[in-house]
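Example for tutorial group B:
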């Protein structure tokens, strides 16, 4: 296959990447007050910055710290890990987990989605097929007992009464009412390659992110396909700016408010049904072009999980970004606000994301969840707002940073500038 060489280099996403061991103090439970606020003399418009984080690891009850997927509903947060499934009760914070000995059909949980109609949890298994968790039990589908095209499932999406599974050999669609399976491969869909990396659904459109075939759009009403490829056909460089998808090796899609957000291994992009816009690390707040996943919050905000941190396009119209990373030496958190290539604000925090290798982001109301190779993080969006506002800038002195406490705290009173 023509992308085999590149595949060998970047297969590490789901090949159980080994990362440096975090120190005990890095796996903090509880919330930390990260930064005080200093009045801004300029009254500059700035985006919301998440400064309250809580970490969840095996010490808190997760079955494993390598997080592949997160799905939040009204009452629970479901977490897929390298060695089991977990559920966090939002009201109590308690964690329940399932491993193979507890009935989970396969140990590696790579994808999750919840049916808003039935409340059932659908679980993609990396090598084990597809499962449904309902009424306290697991039902299991695989290649030998169903129409699932392959047991290596990278993505799952609920579309009305149908369940989509993105696999390494194509996509499968399961009708939960009739029990009918439909398989999509290069034989009946415009797939140049069949390695499906992700799937998402919203507002009558299913989007498949395919490794080597860009993005495929399936219109539920017309049952027709449309493909999105990089028009210049170049693998090493995006020859013509914003002429289409940035690269055909795509890893994730998110469709919200009529906007398609796409992550790839060579940059990210946004599509409004007429115009494409590409985003690259050298000219935006993206920490890396190597995108593992994307979650669109609305038409102007999207969260990109990369191998070097989380890049948030906080306001599309002004090209304003917030980049969340962890210092590998001090393990402190950092948020950088940029507009274009200009840095507007730096927020230094005792705790941020647990690790820079991020694999998933999930918007949960005003809060956000980030899955990494060394644990799960919840960012609390107290006072969250969309877009930009005139606000004071964050300033954290060393003494204030060291005095952070666990638990919920009100934001410190703004200091008056001199």
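The residue assignment follows.
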């Amino acid at each position: 296959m023509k992308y085999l060489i590149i595949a060998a280099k970047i297969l590490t996403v789901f090949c159980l990447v080994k990362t440096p061991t975090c120190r005990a103090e890095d796996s903090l439970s509880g919330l930390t007050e990260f930064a005080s606020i200093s009045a801004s003399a300029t009254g500059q418009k700035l985006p919301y910055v998440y400064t309250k984080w809580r970490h969840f690891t095996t010490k808190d009850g997760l079955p494993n710290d390598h997080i592949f997927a997160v799905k939040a509903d009204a009452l629970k947060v479901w977490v897929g890990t390298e060695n089991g499934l977990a559920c966090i009760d939002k009201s109590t914070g308690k964690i329940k987990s399932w491993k193979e000995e507890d009935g989970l059909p396969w140990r590696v949980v790579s994808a999750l989605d919840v049916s808003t109609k039935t409340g059932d949890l659908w679980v993609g298994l990396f090598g084990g097929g597809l499962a449904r968790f309902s009424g306290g039990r697991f039902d299991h589908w695989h290649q030998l007992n169903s129409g699932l095209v392959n047991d290596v499932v990278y993505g799952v999406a609920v579309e009305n009464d149908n369940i989509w599974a993105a696999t390494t050999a194509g996509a499968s669609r399961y009708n939960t009412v009739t029990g009918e399976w439909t398989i999509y491969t290069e034989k009946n869909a415009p797939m140049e390659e069949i390695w499906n990396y992700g799937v998402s659904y919203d507002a009558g459109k299913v989007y498949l992110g395919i490794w080597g075939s860009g993005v495929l759009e399936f219109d539920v009403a017309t049952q027709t396909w449309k493909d999105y490829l990089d028009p210049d056909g170049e693998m090493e460089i995006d020859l013509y700016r914003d002429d289409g998808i940035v690269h055909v090796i795509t890893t994730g899609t998110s469709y919200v408010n009529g906007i398609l957000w796409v992550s790839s291994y060579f940059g990210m992009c946004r599509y409004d049904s007429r115009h494409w816009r590409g985003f690259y690390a050298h000219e935006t707040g993206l920490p890396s072009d190597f995108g593992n996943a994307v979650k669109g919050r609305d038409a102007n905000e999207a969260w990109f999980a990369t191998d070097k941190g989380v890049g948030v396009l906080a306001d599309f119209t002004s090209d304003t970004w917030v980049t969340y990373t962890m210092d590998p030496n001090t393990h402190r958190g950092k948020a950088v606000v940029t507009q274009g290539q200009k840095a507007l604000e730096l927020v230094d925090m005792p705790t941020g994301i647990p690790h820079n290798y991020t694999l998933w982001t999930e918007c949960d109301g005003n809060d956000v969840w980030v899955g990494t190779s060394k644990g799960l993080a919840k960012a609390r969006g107290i006072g969250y707002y969309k877009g930009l506002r005139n606000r004071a800038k964050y300033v954290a002195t060393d003494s204030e940073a060291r005095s952070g406490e666990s638990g919920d705290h009100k934001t410190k009173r703004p200091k008056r500038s001199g």
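DSSP finds two helices and 34 strands in the chain. Compare this with the pattern of hydrophobic and polar residues in the output above.
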